[in-house]
Amino acid sequence: MPLVEINESLQLERDLKRRMDFNRTVLVTGGSGFIGSHLVCSLVNRYPEWRIINLDYLDYCCSPRSLESVEDRTNYTFIRGDVCNPRLVNHIFNTENVDVVFHLAAKTHVASSFECPSSFQQVNVDGTRVLLAAAHQAPRRLQRFVYVSTDEVYGPSEDQVFDESSPMRPSNPYAATKAAAEYLVRSYWDQFKFPIIITRSNNVYGPRQYTEKVIPRFLTLLQVNKKCPVQGTLPQSRHFLFVSDAVDALLLVLEKGTVGEVYNMGTSFEIPIVQLARELVRMVKNVPASKVKDWVEFVPERPRVDLRYPIRSEKLQRLGWREQVSWAEGIRHTVKWYQDHPDFWSEAGEDHGGTRSPGGTAATKSP
Ligand SMILES: NC(=O)c1ccc[n+]([C@@H]2O[C@H](COP(=O)([O-])OP(=O)(O)OC[C@H]3O[C@@H](n4cnc5c(N)ncnc54)[C@H](O)[C@@H]3O)[C@@H](O)[C@H]2O)c1
To answer: What protein family does this chain belong to (predicted)?
Structure first.
């Protein structure tokens, strides 16, 4: 498979950067994705004395433009490759002197996980197993292995608010594979005291998120005069955390988190999906209140959509983390970004030439 593209000039560049005087090497997997690209940009900009390596397969949900602001920086290196490829991953750990891993590479779209669960199992579980084994056998002792997991491992809840000791009861293949990967990560702590930390985050939103996820999906549909499809009739709601707050939490956990521990990354902001759709209609379409409902339609849910995932984040807050970006500010910034970059994802589609998730197919014509 042509997934490993380490040609000679890239190899030379990497050799040069390896010889430069960096005091920490951080490997981010999935660093070209939504959260990963924000994390990589923050690491590259905030820590010029650290070397940041991004290992990413460049799946359909990535745009090369997400990392254009850092691609020429001397402390940034990109390796295109698959976390499931043991030869490549072992090679990276044997040659790059990695100190820290942020493991984000994953298949992440819940609906697709019902259609193709084996690819979720392969990337999310096998990929994590390959990465753990390589990091554990590496000649250089790893300082931290941060596994970026999700609130969805708890399963849905109507009333119960989950803390880190709540049992995992995942209710879709995506969440099941994230939970399985967590068990693998935890086994390395239990058996070897390998320095892992696990984070479980609420939904994250912000600029550059691929259009299969609910906020960018609604925004891009409205931009082409299509309605926001709300699935089912039950009162599903979601908690939304702005991406810079998620990145801050990950960096804080790296510095102050205790090894072997799990940290919820939650927000107090929760919104029913139908209300989210109406709010986005008001922001994008500028229509009178009486017309807002014309831009929202109810579609059958298949498979069933979980109601809500409430989590407590006191443990993370005790490390000093607080949400900095209010919903009002975060969504305004996000809406503006999608308005200012209407072609970001369609152009990325052309760059990839690959299959894209059918983000807009459930929508009907404008009212
Ligand atoms: N976005 C959220 O709301 C959210 C919430 C909680 C947890 N998470 C977790 O955070 C992580 C990142 O999420 P995201 O929203 O940025 O996802 P994303 O889908 O935008 O990015 C995933 C990245 O992983 C890469 N990838 C996929 N398969 C790969 C492989 N085999 N080898 C190397 N790279 C591969 C993709 O190319 C992409 O860059 C995931 O592990 C996800 O489970 C996300």
So the answer is: Belongs to the NAD(P)-dependent epimerase/dehydratase family. dTDP-glucose dehydratase subfamily.
Please tell me which residue, 302 or 91, carries the higher pLDDT value: 91
Domains along the sequence of the chain with CATH: 2-341 (3.40.50.720)
Tell the residue nearest (CA) to atom 30 of ligand 1: 82
Q: Which residues contact 58 (CB under 8 A, 6 or more apart)?
A: 32, 64, 80, 352
Question: 119, 107 in Cβ contact below 8 A?
Answer: yes
Q: Which of 99, 151, 212, 323 is catalytic?
A: 151
Per-residue confidence (pLDDT) for residue 1, from 0 to 100: 43
Has residue 252 got a pLDDT over 70? Answer: yes
- Single out the catalytic residue among 76, 147, 154, 174: 174
Report residue 297 as tokens. Answer: 């339609």
Distance (angstroms) between ligand 1 centre and the Cα of 201 equals 12
